Amino acid sequence: MSRSTPKGEPHDWVTRAADDAIRHHEKSGAPGPVTCSSGASPSGPVHLGNLREFLMPHFVADELRRRGVPVRHLHVWDDYDRFRKVPVGVDPSYAEHIGRPLSAVPDPWDCHASWAEHFKEPLLDALHAMGIEMEEISQTERYRSGVYREEVLRAVRHRAEIDAVLSRHRTKKAEVTEATDDDHAAQEAEAMADSVAHEEDDAATEVGWFPFRPYCHDCGRDTTTVTAYDDATTDLAYTCSVCDYHGTTNLTTKDEGKLVWKADWPMRWAFEKVDFEPAGMDHATPGSSFTVGHELVESIWNMPRPAWFGYGFVGFAGVQKMSSSAGGAPTASDALRVLEPAILRWLYVRRQPKQTFDIDFGPEVVRLYDEWDALGRKAATKRDTAVLAYERAAATESYGPLPSPRVVVPFRMLASVADVTAGSAEQISRIIAHMGHAHDSVDDLEPRLSRAMAWTAEFVPASDRTTVRSEPDAARLAAMSDREREWVGLLLDGLDRLDGPELDLEPVTALVYGVPKLALGLALDDAPTDEVKADQKEFFGLLYRLLVDADRGPRLPTLIVALGTDRVRTLLGG
Ligand SMILES: [Zn+2]
Q: Which of the chain's ends, N or C, has fewer CB atoms near its CB within 10 Å?
């Protein structure tokens, strides 16, 4: 089954992680497909930073599928984790649910079966749009159905050994924490941990460290203290500090709680036969549940630790206008309103996992699209690591090519036309056809066109947008010099000579740049002299003033084609 990449082919982090996953699979000797796993707690909106958790295993699984290796991307929903705090915007009465599993807390917006389901669905929609397919499991279902029962008993039997490992790591962690003074790293870790939100607290007990925490039989909360455990009968007695319930559960016959995080993670790796699972850099630190889990999976569950790497933080910029449900932090759905699905994938695959980066929704978007288009042209003729990243982003083995426009028009051109016309997709499509990009229908320009329209309307600050004058500037027109009058006259005559009511970009470009040449007795295609260049600058300034009441704006030929001869004539007083 180990099909590796032929020599001479480009390699990247995905290639190496896929090799590691295969090696782990062979070493563990587990039957079935190679398992690449991700995990997330559906406690809130999944922002673009947490999206990395889903994308890293996806790319590795896709690489294995390309090689013909049987593989699955297993996604674990930690929906049996406790509800920790009531977020801003939710009725404070929800505090009564703190301590209950996320799957048992009602949906405050009344649209899903639970809190957990409410946050799973929008993410799954976005992942689907990005060509990502996962085999999902719910920890609520896993625990409640009793499939983990044997593993719970194993952890409880070995609790003294587990506790000894944890103690050793606690000491190590304290030493490292003392020696580290890196505010930035700490902030990043906190930001990532915030939404991954794995429960790190140990269970409260009167019987020493205990790996299992019951959910109260009476009130459903995990505010329980283990008061006694009988190894022979596996009876576990507890009290609940909130409702004062005193109860007993039995670990062999009942399923009324879960392993604490540090035992839960290695148990799951072993039970689900995970070969590869990356982790945020905050988890890849001494004493973290991830690090401890790596040791426990080997010593308690007898499986070699899964292949892994730590991945860095993803931030964002230019989102002040974004009305995100994540409280300012944009989600995948937010990003997909502006970026083609393949481009969003590309942002994550082209970087080394440890590299941190920002996703910028400001002017950087235009450059990003240009870079992507250039890489697409390069991919047609050669293959290197950059092209490999392009291929991974543009298509997957099982989904096929991600949606991309049949006719590729530069994003900056679509955005400019959308800006100038503030018009419909049909109107923009008609104008684009006159700009050297022939196409049959609006559909040929999608999914890019609607993204250019959304970006222009929502992400370009009002001060950078173009407002075409509704009425001619009578005062400025009256104050024009003879020379300015001559330029305007030459431009309007020239436009009249261009055929029909709709203008083409190329002749309009020649005309706009050529008017000052004609005025000096030169021909349209003569090389510009210094005098011509100075006049062009002055002429363009006049046109911006008269057309859009500003000192600058989109390229003038684009502006004139978008406005059409009649509108230009009216505003230039012709
Ligand atoms: Zn209770």
A: N
Question: How many Å lie between the centroid of ligand 1 and the Cα of residue 222?
Answer: 8
C-alpha 260 – ligand 1 centre gap (Å): 18
217-265 residue pLDDT tens: 999 999 999 999 999 999 999 999 999 999 999 999 999 999 999 999 9
Residue 195 has pLDDT above 60, yes or no: no
> The tokens of 85 are what?
């705090």
- pLDDT of 185 reads 47
Rounded to whole angstroms, how far apart are CA atoms 485 and 490? 9
Q: How far is CA 360 from the centre of its chain?
A: 11
- Kindly give the distance from the C-alpha atom of residue 204 to the centroid of ligand 1, in angstroms, as a whole number: 14
2 Cα: distance to centroid of ligand 1 (angstroms): 51
3-class DSSP state of 55:
helix
Query: What span, in angstroms and rounded, lies between the C-alpha atoms of 61 and 134?
Result: 10
Report strand pairing: 400-401 vs 279-280.
unpaired
- The stretch 290-310 carries a mean pLDDT of 95
Q: How far is the CA of 153 from the centre of ligand 1 (A)?
A: 23
CB neighbour list of residue 351: distance below 8 Å, 6 or more residues apart? 357
CA of 60 to the centre of ligand 1 (A): 43
- Using an 8 Å Cβ cutoff, are 428 and 418 in contact? yes
Cα gap 10→31, rounded to integer Å: 30
What's the rounded Cα separation, in Å, for the pair 465 and 470? 15
CA distance 296 to 161: 9
d(CA 451, CA 411): 9
The pLDDT of residue 272 is above 80: yes
Residue 212 β-bridge partners: 259
Q: From ligand 1's centre to the CA of 246, what distance in Å?
A: 8
- Packing angle of the helix pair 289-299, 159-179 (nearest 10 deg): 150
